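Workshop exercise sheet. Pairs work together: one partner reads the sequence aloud, the other fills in the structure field after running the prediction. Swap roles for the next sheet.
Pair: D.N. / O.F.
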Amino acid sequence: MTTPHHVPFLTKVERPSLGIGVPLRHLLLVELERAGAAGLSLTALRHAVEARGFRLDGHAGKTLSGALRTELRRGRVTRIRRGHYALGELPRTTRWRAHNTVRALVGGEPLAEVPEAVGRPAATNDQ
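Structure field:
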């Protein structure tokens, strides 16, 4: 029998899932960009996703490697060795989209334009 003031105990905080699509791939690209040339392992990438407050569906390593495989084919990610990846050639527009996606995921405002720090040169009014 429960009392009117009984609140069930929650043993696990439910985190939103990123699924296997574009949001996950964009988050991975941003994390690899932050890591630099040294790259990150699948374990470090999993921890980075979880640190942002998201969970991975299914087997985490397979979900991540599947997402990275797509980016490998497009040249945006390079495989350093088994289970370790680094950022490859990332076009400015893709970089901008990835940063906007991550900002939207974590609750920030999307960027109207690509700032210089993300890789786009500042606009000039030379006419």
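Discussion prompt: The chain has one domain: 22-118. What would you look at next?
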